[in-house]
Amino acid sequence: MESYDVVIIGSGPAGLGAAFELLGRRPGTSVLMLDKNDFSSGGLRNDCKMNFTWPIGFPELCWTSREAGAYLGRVEAFLAPKIMEKRNIEVYARRAEKIGVALLEIRQAHLGTDGGLELIKRLMQRLGELGASLSLGERALSLDSGARVLRTDRRELRYRNLVIAPGRGGFAFLQELMAAAAVEFTDNIVDVGIRIETGEERYPIVRDYYDPKFLFPKKTRTFCTNSRAAYVVQEKYEDRDGGVWYSVNGHSWSGSRPPNGLVNFALLKTVTLTEPLASGQAYARMLGIQAALLGGGRPIMQRIGDFRLGKRSTREAFSGDLYDFEPTLPSATPGDIGLVAPAKVMRALWNAMKLLDTIVPGLLHPSTIMYYPEIKLYANRPVFMDANFRAAPGLYLVGDGAGTSRGITAAWASGMRAADGILSS
Ligand SMILES: Cc1cc2nc3c(=O)[nH]c(=O)nc-3n(C[C@H](O)[C@H](O)[C@H](O)COP(=O)(O)OP(=O)(O)OC[C@H]3O[C@@H](n4cnc5c(N)ncnc54)[C@H](O)[C@@H]3O)c2cc1C
User: Which end of the chain is more exposed for a tag (fewer CB within 10 A), N or C?
Assistant: First the structure.
């Protein structure tokens, strides 16, 4: 049986952070990185906005601001990003403060989906030069954590340390592995919301601040803003019981496609569940399936004009004269989000939209589109044995799937932190 010092499941930023740290500090370590996809590497492929300010991307249950700051410094030193300038934001910050909203000032870099692909190519080449083995198209299946053996769809592998970084899409897979390794976990937090798409002239703040982070009352916030050549996309979720549903998301291209004059961003409310249903994943699945039921198997989109009148959107609403841009996710079904989103979530979102329209007037133009659902499933909360995300002997759980991050830079930092644990063990 092949044997490695470290096997890493997932070639997203968390897996990469671990691999580069291990090989950079201890050359000669035998590292195998697996990814079920034929390409690498997870979420760096999508838009690749990188945030370098606490607390963006860092769940506060796992990171103090000091810890995050120290790791962010190391991530920045490695990735050497070009930080974008922000201009004229004082006026927005003042308006926000007056109505109880916070505008966070974040250091950001943006590569775009095309720039992200270039970065991945360079990183993969560097990993190879450092001596890592990379196996794409190989899916990790199960684990015997006592014997330190991993079974994939191709072989069995022995490892001294295993870093599991399967991302949000691997949320359920990670739960199976944790059950097999007797790692206790909870998953009682989920973010539920919408993605908003509108003309750039109705949300001009993006010309001065690429991804403005607003925090509203009732645990509601803006997240992942895209502009210039911006598109809404859908992610498919399938479960073992045959349930299929979609969450929307967004990305943009930095230079390889012409600007389309649109902006999209998520507006999310954090929901914390208590007994008797404490599974964020189960809740998210039911919400997703309900949306797919009313959307004919697709996400739902609704123009603000229709939402305000309390009526569903129809295909006609997407071609009337008031509606001056086409949706970038045309396969979404025009419908009534009020029928599928929980009332408490919808109220918080609508309240946030009104506040945002006061800060950046124009957002609530009738043509603005809301897409539902946008759900973030990164709330597995394993019980860790130490500060390096070790959940069992030789077993480290990192990245978004393990709830240790919510974005590229924090995912990278979580992989580094696991590597620190391995190097000091
Ligand atoms: C459309 C979109 C846009 C985004 N834009 C941004 C952004 O601009 N900025 C930002 O900070 N964040 C963004 N994010 C979030 C960001 O991508 C994630 O926070 C980050 O990628 C998490 O890193 P990760 O390493 O934990 O997981 P991932 O990047 O998801 O990587 C996990 C990898 O594990 C592999 N994998 C899963 N299960 C298995 C298995 N069983 N066997 C083998 N391999 C497996 C997957 O194929 C995947 O490649 C975006 C996400 C999406 C979907």
Answer: N
